[in-house]
Amino acid sequence: MVDLDPVQRPKFTPWVEKYRPSKVEEVSHQLEVVAALRKSIQTGQVPHLMFYGPPGTGKTSTILALSKELFGGEFFKQRVIELNASDERGIAVVREKVKKFAQRKIAKHPDSNFNCPSIQIVILDEADSMTIDAQAALRRIIEQYSSNTRFCIICNYISKIIDPLASRCVKFRFSPIARDAQIDRLKFICEKENVKVESDDVFQSLVDISAGDLRRSINTLQTASTFKQNNITKRDIESISGIVPHEFIIKVEQIISNTDGFSDVQFLTQELLWEGFDVQQVIYQILDHLMSNPKLSDLKKARLSEIIAETDVKLIQGGDEEINLLYTLSSVSRIIKVKNKHGSHQ
Fold first, then answer.
1. Structural domain range at position 80
2. Which residues pair with 172 in a beta bridge?
3. Number of other CB atoms surrounding residue 123 within 10 Å
4. Last residue of a domain, one of 241, 263, 284
5. Predicted confidence (pLDDT) per residue in 226-280, tens digit
């Protein structure tokens, strides 16, 4: 473990915050959103907004960058309130915090020459976690205070937002960030933070693990750098992320494909648990690996997907990990070894 120089790193700052874009143009891979919001900055006319899409694609960063450009520098904090609806999702929060903020007198910008629009912005992050009653209350507040307050509703699933609320917003979909854009951003951060990696495989691994979530990629990279600032390897990233090493997945496939007895599967289950692997992560990786096997028929792949989905639900509901993993491996083994009509195992 490398000793960190306190002069070099005087304060821990999350890189996700440190490298947030300060301008809308700096937002990665959301060209249509950037083009539309640039016009709002130029005119000062901002509608109610709804940003939706997968995690880590820049939704919160975009509205914060827009606010900084509209209101300028540190002053944007006077005009913006940010609430995480997943933590504060009751109707009381909507009625008290949001209503109180919307009713207050708008602060004047200290620079009289700065063209600052006379509005304020309420950011509701993870709004798809709000109750239906809270969303209905929010709709009424939007109608009441739309003259001086704009709302930006951020969610992963637009289907969980009630139609009367969604219809009052201009909707922007944030797509997963492209691999090249993620890798470029990660390399940029490594250069700024003087972090060395063994090869580009490290960046490829970060992107694969995050599945388009740039925030997760950056957080994983920062975690790795706190333990090993120089020569970070692909294995380091996998270890920190809880990823099961590929050789274990190959071993699982070999055993469940060739075993003739239940005891082999039972011992494999215990070995995976002894290694401390997350059971959900194990079954996800097994499924991904088997889906890429050209020797398995589409019907078998469909059956395997059903088994994994069934186990996933049981684990989420608190089912016993050992029993569910044993059931899954046994079922997968049985499906793989079933012969088709032509007598093969495809």
1. 30-173
2. 51
3. 23
4. 241
5. 887 678 988 888 888 888 888 889 999 999 988 877 888 999 999 999 988 889 9
